[in-house]
Amino acid sequence: MPWKHALRDLSLVVVTLLFWRADAALRHAGGLLPVLVAVIAGSLAAFSAYIVHEWGHFLAARAGGSVVRLPASAAEVFLFNFNSDRNSREQFLIMSCGGFLASALVIAFFLAVLPFPSLASLVAFALTLAGVIATAVLEIPPFVRVWQGAPLPRGGAYASDATQA
Predict the structure, then answer these.
(1) Residue 79, Cβ neighbours under 10 Å: how many?
(2) Cα–Cα distance for residue pair 52/110, rounded to 1 Å
(3) Least confident of 26-40, 71-85, 129-143
(4) pLDDT tens per residue, range 77-108
(5) DSSP letter string over 30-76?
(6) For residues 128 and 133, what is the distance between their CA atoms, to the nearest angstrom?
(7) What is the DSSP letter of 151?
(8) In a 10 Å sphere around its CB, with 0-12 CB exposed, 13-18 middle and 19+ buried, how is residue 12 labelled?
(9) What span, in angstroms and rounded, lies between the C-alpha atoms of 51 and 13?
(10) Which one is predicted more confidently, 77 or 121?
């Protein structure tokens, strides 16, 4: 379990909630400060949505019995590296679906709880939707290729035995 990342990400959620609380308190005030707080709150919520997406991948990988490399520190970009040499096609597909499911749940959660049409809500939803579209462009093509029998991807978040040694 990447405990350092979990603590980092939990801290991010706490800071995000603090900005949302400040946004609620300032929402009807005039001036630049409420706008700045709303943009920060919305941006942090969108970044939290990305983190939830990554945790969805990780939890699905673990549930599917995948071999992963955990990061040495919380400063590493990836939450984990998926070992393309030691994992099966099915494990790759399960890991991928975890991120897709997490993103769908975040979108549903945002639609259910964000106070639309507040600026913070609009920023959060727009940036999250942009992230989901970017994720679809980047992650769906390799998912489909592997589903159709192509080899597992390599590089970036996909490690091999050579890179995990």
Answers:
(1) 22
(2) 13
(3) 71-85
(4) 788 889 999 999 999 999 999 999 999 999 99
(5) -SHHHHHHHHHHHHHHHHHHHHHHHHHHHHHHHHTT--EE--SSTTS
(6) 9
(7) P
(8) middle
(9) 10
(10) 121
- Asked whether 49 and 128 are in contact (CB, 8 A), the reply is yes
Picking from 70, 66, 68, 69, the residue whose alpha carbon sits closest to that of residue 88 is 66
Is there a contact between 71 and 2 (Cβ–Cβ < 8 Å)? yes
pLDDT single digits (tens) 31-41:
999 999 999 99
User: CA 164 to CA 88: how far, in whole Å?
Assistant: 17
How many residues in total does the chain contain? 165
Instruction: Look up tokens 């597909």; give the residue.
Output: 93
The residues near 71 (Cβ < 8 Å, ≥ 6 apart) are 2, 4, 5, 78, 79, 80
Strands of the sheet containing 81-83, edge to edge, are 68-69, 81-83, 158-159
Specify whether the CB–CB gap between 61 and 94 falls below 8 A.
Answer: yes
In the block, tokens 């709303």 appear at 38
Q: What is the DSSP letter of 120?
A: H
